[in-house]
Amino acid sequence: MRTRKLGNSGIEASVVGLGAWVLGGGTVWGKDTDDAESIATIRAALDAGITLIDTAPAYGFGRSEEVVGKAIHGRRDKVVLATKCGLWWDDQRGSYFCEFDGRPMRRSLRPDTVTTEVENSLRRLGTDYIDLYQTHWPAIDPDKTPIADTMACLMKLKEQGKIRAIGVSNVSPAELAENVAAGDVASNQFRYSMLYRAPEKDILPACQRNHLATLTYMSLEQGLLTGKVGMDRTFTPGDFRSNGDWNPWYKVENRGRVLAMLARFKPLTEKYACTTAQLTIAWTLAQSGVTHTLAGARRAIQAQENARGGDLLIDSKDLAAIRKEVEGLDESAQ
Ligand SMILES: NC(=O)c1ccc[n+]([C@@H]2O[C@H](COP(=O)([O-])OP(=O)(O)OC[C@H]3O[C@@H](n4cnc5c(N)ncnc54)[C@H](OP(=O)(O)O)[C@@H]3O)[C@@H](O)[C@H]2O)c1
Which of helix, strand or coil describes residue 18? Predict the structure, then answer.
């Protein structure tokens, strides 16, 4: 598996990271998750060469971190462990964000909540250091902590050795610039896929200018870009993917157009002897400014398949042909 640096941190991580959101379970992922299967998935990812694992306290209210902690027990030194702070549910500090499984989630980057969060994450992950500690979402009004105050807290955690590098996520270009000015930012995590390329306009170039690692998420569009979510697949109410309410690409008419496009990639999957998921991962990693991509996996077989996408190199003519196809779909959904 190819590796790349996480910005200027000196940390090398596999270009494909395992996204552990689905391993937290919950209504948004449609069915209950089996922790034993999740542990097997994480271990299969490590065996397949993935070193980067991305989780967060918010994924299943601590469950994803706990499962990751169990899975990496005895292998901690082989893992680049990335988790996050900033989504808070313990009390009324922070600003209301959304509901997850009937529980209100708040956004807080106050130094007092971040200091509590890091201890909770270390305990759940069964480790005494986190490799990459990322702010999950920027703080918002009414309880909007100045970026400089949060960054000062993160820099202190770094000095204390509790975290090795600092990352941000879901920031605007202006927020990114303010974070970079305030401390040692190594990475930025954001949504980016063949079907969601808005970051090409501003965020990706800004990350390149600042020598930041980029951790793209939902690059498989929650499974749609693997080609395995057919027209007949249904999702339970509350699943992100049901009705296309949350992700318009899942609306039946859009799904059909995406599947038709993926069918046209067949000559490429044959040429490169790869699956559609691997082609998607390789295309994402080949885009200007993208250094790492996170791929969620519920089962070991998915993690193994996705890992192999990290070693696939597509030539520039084929990359351009794929781009032409995805640009042809633009009008319909997002
Ligand atoms: N910072 C943020 O705000 C943020 C937001 C979103 C995600 N993330 C991070 O990014 C990671 C990746 O995003 P994501 O998990 O939302 O979406 P994703 O990687 O686009 O999709 C993951 C889902 O796709 C399906 N899948 C994956 N590999 C497959 C394969 N080879 N064959 C068939 N199906 C496959 C699985 O769903 P089924 O098994 O249900 O089919 C899996 O749960 C997350 O886990 C998380 O770590 C961060």
Answer: strand
Which residues line the pocket of ligand 1, CB cutoff 6 A?
A: 19-22, 54, 136, 169-170, 189, 217-223, 226, 228, 277, 294-298, 302, 305-306
Q: Distance between CA atoms of 262 and 278, rounded to whole angstroms?
A: 12
Q: Rounded to the nearest 5°, which phi and psi values hold at 17? A: -110, 150
Q: Say if residues 174 and 180 touch (Cβ distance below 8 Å).
A: no
Q: What is the pLDDT along the chain (334 residues), one digit of tens a residue?
A: 999 999 999 999 999 999 999 999 988 887 678 999 999 999 999 999 999 999 999 999 999 999 999 999 999 999 999 999 999 999 999 999 999 888 999 999 999 999 999 999 999 999 999 999 999 999 999 999 999 999 999 999 999 999 999 999 999 999 999 999 999 999 999 999 999 999 999 999 999 999 999 999 999 999 999 999 999 888 888 888 887 778 899 998 899 999 999 999 999 999 999 999 999 999 999 999 999 999 999 999 999 999 999 999 999 999 999 999 999 987 656 5
Active site residue 196: no
Ligand 1 atom 34: residue of nearest CA: 223
Going from the N-terminus, what domains does the chain have, and what CATH number goes with each? 3-222+285-314 (3.20.20.100)
- Entry pTM: 0.97
Distance of CA 50 to the CA centre of its chain: 14
